Amino acid sequence: MDKNPKQWLSTAAIECRARAHAPYSKFQVGAALLTASGEIFAGCNVENASYGLTICAERVAIGTAVAAGHKQIVAVAVASSGGHSPCGACRQVLSEFGPAMEVILIDADDPTKTRTTTLAALLPEQFSSDAL
Ligand code: THU
Fold it and tell me: Does the predicted TM-score (pTM) go above 0.90?
């Protein structure tokens, strides 16, 4: 049976997680975005010896999608050990490109424990362009 877009999204997040550069925290994260046009863009966390310059997987994925010309995101899948939700900074950055996006949280140790929520639930009253 063919995979549906959400399944492809989860696979992309899990695969990209394996390419994380996380030698300091050892906490690998993969994120994959589904655009309104049906394309998928992935990212992994990229740590740095200076620690503070670390970029989260979600923001790497956003940069990749935007650089390819995509600014409407309908879903994000995030894969990590334990299936944790995006940090506050990433929630805000994700909201710029899809405040109503679905958020799929994958436990990379046991993908059967995947759960789904929404960015609106994770980040109510986000700061948006409406304020400017
Ligand atoms: N990390 C992400 O990639 N996304 C998040 O939403 C939270 C944290 C990364 C940053 C760092 O490389 C590692 O996880 C531990 O904080």
Answer: yes
